[in-house]
Design a protein that fits this description.
Radius of gyration: 19 Å
Shape: elongated
Distance between the termini: 63 Å
Order of helices and strands: HHHH
Strand content: under 5%
Number of domains: 1
Mean pLDDT: 89
Number of strands: 0
Protein backbone atom coordinates (compact mmCIF):
# COMPACT_ATOMS: atom_id res chain seq x y z
CA UNK A 1 0.00 0.00 0.00
CA UNK A 2 1.50 3.31 -1.07
CA UNK A 3 1.00 6.44 0.99
CA UNK A 4 -0.50 9.35 -0.90
CA UNK A 5 1.62 12.28 0.29
CA UNK A 6 0.34 15.83 -0.05
CA UNK A 7 1.66 17.62 -3.14
CA UNK A 8 3.94 19.83 -1.00
CA UNK A 9 5.66 16.77 0.46
CA UNK A 10 6.00 15.11 -2.96
CA UNK A 11 7.46 18.33 -4.40
CA UNK A 12 9.92 18.61 -1.50
CA UNK A 13 11.06 14.99 -1.88
CA UNK A 14 11.39 15.40 -5.64
CA UNK A 15 13.46 18.56 -5.27
CA UNK A 16 15.74 17.05 -2.63
CA UNK A 17 16.26 13.55 -4.05
CA UNK A 18 15.85 13.98 -7.81
CA UNK A 19 16.64 17.57 -8.79
CA UNK A 20 19.72 17.75 -6.55
CA UNK A 21 21.11 14.36 -7.63
CA UNK A 22 24.63 14.97 -8.96
CA UNK A 23 27.90 13.05 -9.00
CA UNK A 24 28.83 14.92 -5.82
CA UNK A 25 25.70 13.74 -4.03
CA UNK A 26 26.52 10.20 -5.18
CA UNK A 27 29.97 10.56 -3.53
CA UNK A 28 28.20 11.62 -0.35
CA UNK A 29 25.86 8.61 -0.58
CA UNK A 30 28.85 6.28 -1.06
CA UNK A 31 30.58 7.75 1.97
CA UNK A 32 27.44 7.45 4.06
CA UNK A 33 26.95 3.83 2.93
CA UNK A 34 30.51 2.91 3.98
CA UNK A 35 30.07 4.74 7.24
CA UNK A 36 26.78 2.96 7.98
CA UNK A 37 28.26 -0.45 7.09
CA UNK A 38 30.67 -0.19 10.00
CA UNK A 39 27.74 -0.48 12.43
CA UNK A 40 26.52 -3.64 10.72
CA UNK A 41 30.03 -5.13 10.93
CA UNK A 42 30.30 -4.24 14.62
CA UNK A 43 26.83 -5.58 15.39
CA UNK A 44 27.53 -8.94 13.71
CA UNK A 45 30.90 -9.31 15.47
CA UNK A 46 29.33 -8.49 18.82
CA UNK A 47 26.48 -10.95 18.33
CA UNK A 48 28.89 -13.73 17.37
CA UNK A 49 31.15 -13.08 20.37
CA UNK A 50 28.20 -12.45 22.73
CA UNK A 51 30.14 -9.41 24.06
CA UNK A 52 31.00 -5.96 22.76
CA UNK A 53 33.59 -6.26 20.00
CA UNK A 54 35.02 -3.75 17.58
CA UNK A 55 36.61 -5.61 14.64
CA UNK A 56 39.38 -4.10 12.50
CA UNK A 57 36.93 -3.87 9.58
CA UNK A 58 34.96 -1.33 11.65
CA UNK A 59 37.93 1.05 11.57
CA UNK A 60 38.51 0.54 7.83
CA UNK A 61 34.86 1.29 7.04
CA UNK A 62 35.06 4.29 9.40
CA UNK A 63 38.13 5.62 7.60
CA UNK A 64 36.72 4.98 4.12
CA UNK A 65 33.34 6.50 4.88
CA UNK A 66 34.87 9.35 6.87
CA UNK A 67 37.30 10.26 4.08
CA UNK A 68 34.58 10.24 1.42
CA UNK A 69 32.29 12.32 3.61
CA UNK A 70 35.18 14.67 4.41
CA UNK A 71 35.82 15.16 0.67
CA UNK A 72 32.11 15.70 0.13
CA UNK A 73 32.04 18.27 2.94
CA UNK A 74 35.03 20.09 1.42
CA UNK A 75 33.36 20.22 -1.97
CA UNK A 76 30.07 21.55 -0.60
CA UNK A 77 32.02 23.89 1.71
CA UNK A 78 30.23 22.95 4.91
CA UNK A 79 32.47 23.97 7.84
CA UNK A 80 30.58 21.95 10.48
CA UNK A 81 30.73 18.80 8.36
CA UNK A 82 34.42 19.43 7.50
CA UNK A 83 35.41 19.70 11.16
CA UNK A 84 33.31 16.74 12.25
CA UNK A 85 34.50 14.33 9.57
CA UNK A 86 38.09 15.59 9.60
CA UNK A 87 38.43 15.02 13.33
CA UNK A 88 36.67 11.66 13.11
CA UNK A 89 39.10 10.33 10.49
CA UNK A 90 42.02 11.19 12.78
CA UNK A 91 40.39 9.25 15.64
CA UNK A 92 39.74 6.23 13.40
CA UNK A 93 43.34 6.23 12.15
CA UNK A 94 44.62 6.45 15.72
CA UNK A 95 42.46 3.50 16.80
CA UNK A 96 43.71 1.44 13.87
CA UNK A 97 47.29 2.33 14.88
CA UNK A 98 46.60 0.97 18.38
CA UNK A 99 45.12 -2.25 16.98
CA UNK A 100 48.19 -2.93 14.85
CA UNK A 101 50.62 -1.86 17.58
CA UNK A 102 49.00 -4.31 20.00
CA UNK A 103 49.21 -7.09 17.41
CA UNK A 104 52.88 -6.30 16.77
CA UNK A 105 53.64 -6.32 20.49
CA UNK A 106 51.84 -9.64 20.98
CA UNK A 107 53.71 -11.17 18.03
CA UNK A 108 57.03 -10.00 19.52
CA UNK A 109 56.18 -11.60 22.87
CA UNK A 110 55.41 -14.97 21.28
CA UNK A 111 58.47 -14.97 19.04
Amino acid sequence: MLVDFPSEVREFLYNVFVVKLTWLVLVGYAGQALFATRFVVQWIATERARKSVIPVAFWFFSIGGGLLLFCYALLIRDPVFILGQGFGVLVYLRNLYFVYRERRDQAAKTA
